[in-house]
Write a structure and sequence with these properties.
alpha/beta, Rossmann fold, 8 helices, Methyltransf_25, methyltransferase activity, methyltransferase, transferase, S-adenosyl-L-methionine
Length: about 240
């Protein structure tokens, strides 16, 4: 018998089919965040060094912000402390529980939402900044087009998109986009070359694209050299 749910008529149907080949993300991330004592670098409660740099030098400013894959909230909280109106989204309720505890302890207001970013609809031209610290390298290749379209459509003219993601050859999986589907896995997160990032965001102005500066912990800033630190501007 033909299953109507397995018929392909639209691009969304193709995306759902390809999603089904990969691990369901939310349960894995809830388990990942359930142990807060693990020695995970980004579990520290410190904002990204590149994000702080751009606020300190005046490139970024208080405005309306969307953070994609906010995790335990360290960057969302920092941006709220800088006077931003912050919407922060993550798949993991465990991560958001931790983020809400951190925000409450600092008396900071952030609008946290537990959701898959591809299930949400954002108002066009509504954000001054969209920030992604570690979400992109966990997004399957077939979702990149809608990911970039969502960012471009949601940013105000002249708005900024900030990104940190795995450096190919340093930390991220060294596999091709096609290999993701052959292996049915992102192998812990895909590594990106500088060329691939420039190609992906070719219709944005590149403000900065460099390796992140490593910060020995404890430190008021977070930084790991196996991550890219990028800032793009909507043309």
């Amino acid at each position: 018998m033909i299953k109507p749910s397995e018929s392909i008529f639209t691009p969304d149907d193709v995306n759902k089919m390809l999603d089904s080949l990969l691990r369901e993300a939310a349960p894995w991330w809830n388990e990942f965040y359930s142990d807060r004592e693990k020695g995970i670098p980004f579990f520290v409660n410190a904002p990204d060094e590149n994000l702080v740099q751009h606020f300190d030098n005046g490139t970024l400013f208080a405005g309306r912000v969307l953070e994609l894959g906010c995790g335990p909230g360290r960057n969302a909280i920092y941006m709220a402390q800088k006077g931003c109106e912050v919407d922060a989204v993550d798949l993991s309720q465990e991560a958001l529980n931790w983020a809400k505890e951190r925000a409450a302890s600092l008396e900071v207001e952030v609008q946290f939402q537990c959701a898959n970013i591809f299930d949400l609809t954002f108002t066009p031209n509504s954000y001054d900044l969209i920030y992604d610290s570690g979400c992109l390298h966990h997004i399957a290749p077939h979702r990149r087009i809608s990911y970039k379209d969502m960012i471009r459509q949601s940013l105000k003219p002249g708005g900024y998109f900030g990104l940190t993601c795995f450096v190919y050859g340093e930390h991220g999986a060294q596999i091709t986009d096609w290999d993701v589907y052959r292996l049915r896995s992102l192998k812990g997160g895909l590594g990106y070359t500088e060329q691939k990032l420039r190609m992906l965001f070719h219709d944005f102005e590149v403000v900065e694209l460099r390796p992140m500066v490593r910060k020995e912990q404890p430190n008021p800033l977070f930084g790991e050299s196996f991550l890219w630190a990028a800032l793009f501007q909507k043309r």
